[in-house]
Specification:
Length: 64
């Protein structure tokens, strides 16, 4: 997951049914402080990375 300042980019891998369920729940089960305006799907090559990471947001994102 990467917070670009213009939105959040999430790459999800798994069985098609699990990915579809994740996609469905992004809008319905988001934290109360999250504002999900839209979700865009894009198929990418599978990279096989396991786990979950959230890289630091750019330092200037919250500046003045």
């Amino acid at each position: 997951m990467v917070d670009t300042g213009a939105g959040v980019v999430v790459e999800v891998e798994g069985p098609p049914a699990a990915v579809a369920e994740f996609r469905r729940r992004v809008g319905t089960d988001a934290p109360p402080s999250a504002a999900v305006g839209s979700v865009v799907d894009e198929e990418l090559p599978v990279d096989g990375v396991a786990g979950f990471t959230i890289p630091a947001s750019p330092a200037d994102r919250f500046a003045g």
